[in-house]
Design goal:
By secondary structure, this protein is of the alpha/beta class. It has a single domain, classed as TIM Barrel, CATH 3.20.20. It has ten helices and ten strands. The strands form two sheets. Strands 1-2-3-4-5-6-7-8 form an eight-stranded parallel beta sheet, sandwiched between helices. The chain has a two-stranded antiparallel ribbon with strand order 9-10. Helix 4 packs parallel to helix 5. The protein starts with 8 loop residues before the first strand and ends with a helix. 44% of the residues are buried.
């Protein structure tokens, strides 16, 4: 994919998520009036129920870079033909990446064996179609490493979105082809492990994300944009928090913000260069 220069790309978000709309966020208004004119965002589908919505959104606006997959939280409810449906849509939409998919031991009743089977299907598909892959992982970094190291035919590149794993695994995942995206929630100084990891991740493997509507920044973060569906409800992240991620990452690494911005955009091009 030949991407034009841009100020910053959200490496992982869910603009189509009903939680955003329920909190008063309008995707149409954001794209037409509020987002920077050259904003871009990788929008991830997480199950067959939302794949078409993500692809439709991408068809209406070239700034939407679609990816579709089966999130580990959706593994138990998957239809029998999910893999063939996913492959068909990816073949029909050659500028679409694979994911969000991965492993998660945090959820109640996690069946890591079944999740691993589904994850391997994604790895195989991304390899066959030569597409980049977005990976979700919570409390399953050891199994993730084992799967990746045991898979000789891996995708050409993959993103560990919102990386919260051990800093000591950073070199391992780098050698396996990983990129790492920084979440606005990591502006919280209590996120010590994630912040330690992002201090040592090679500059050429860094990206930034919002994961909107998930993973909002702390409310007291300068420039934080928070949404709520109801007054007593949880805070949701706004896609405008990408600037929070950039400033926080630059401050954490002691880097110039504008120089880092340029590096992040080059990294995004490197990640997506396999798309047609």
């Amino acid at each position: 994919m030949d991407l034009p220069p841009g100020p910053l790309t959200d490496a992982h978000c869910h603009l189509h998520d009903d939680q955003l709309r329920g909190a008063g966020f309008s995707v149409e208004r954001w794209l037409c009036d509020e987002a920077p004119a050259d904003w871009r965002g990788i929008v991830n589908g997480t199950s067959p129920a939302d794949w078409e919505a993500v692809l439709a959104l991408a068809r209406t606006d070239a700034r939407i870079l679609p990816q579709i997959g089966l999130h580990p939280w959706r593994v138990r409810e998957r239809p029998r033909d999910w893999a063939s449906r996913l492959e068909t849509l990816l073949i029909q939409n050659p500028q679409t990446g694979v994911g969000e998919c991965g492993l998660d031991k945090w959820i109640e009743g996690a069946d890591i064996t079944d999740q691993t089977h589904v994850f391997k299907e994604h790895l195989s598909l991304a390899h066959r179609l030569n597409r980049p892959l977005t990976v979700h992982c919570l409390r399953a970094w050891g199994p993730l490493r084992q799967v990746l190291e045991g898979t000789p035919n891996r995708p050409p590149a993959f993103l560990l979105h919102g990386y919260g794993g051990p800093p000591e695994l950073v070199p391992v995942f780098v050698d396996l082809g990983a990129y790492f995206s920084y979440s606005p929630s990591f502006a919280d100084p209590r996120k010590t492990r994630a912040r330690a990891a992002f201090r040592i991740i090679p500059r050429e493997r860094l990206l930034v994300e919002t994961d909107a509507p998930s993973m909002p920044p702390p409310a007291d973060t300068p420039g934080a944009l928070l949404l709520k569906a109801r007054e007593d409800g949880p805070c949701l992240s706004h896609p405008g928090n990408l600037a929070v991620s950039l400033r926080s990452l630059a401050g954490l690494r002691g880097e110039d913000t504008e120089s880092l911005r340029e590096a992040l955009e080059q990294n995004l091009r490197d990640l997506l260069k396999f798309l047609q």
